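Feature request, filed as a ticket because there's no other form

It would be nice if the structure record came with a short human-readable summary line next to the tokens. Right now we just get the raw output. Example of a typical job, pasted below so the devs can see what we mean:
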Amino acid sequence: QVRLVESGGGLVQAGGSLTLSCVASGTIFRINDMGWHRQAPGKQRELVATITSGKGTNYADSVKGRFAISRDNAKNTVSLQMNSLKPEDTAVYYCSAEMQRRYYDSTRNYWGQGTQVTVSS
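Raw output as currently delivered:
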């Protein structure tokens, strides 16, 4: 079994910072891309940032220059440093990872349970 567990969400004032973390555990042969998505009430889930195993990054335009994604391949973790937070960043943030459990398994995407981020104005 594979699990993704997020931590670090909470309530913060506009202009503040938060760091989200996610750890993958279980039987894992390889992790390719890891990322963060978010879903605000009444809206579709959207991409926030992704990072490849080689540490290449990609960001949604709405968070460029404010958020930074990083990963530790040895620890199977991915983090999201969020600065200059805005009320519109309020959402449930989900960690994702494209993983291969065993060498003979196909690659599939896994999701965490989500962590709430609330930014007050």
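Something like this underneath would help us a lot:
The CA atoms of residues 19 and 81 lie 4 Å apart.
The chain has a mean pLDDT of 97.
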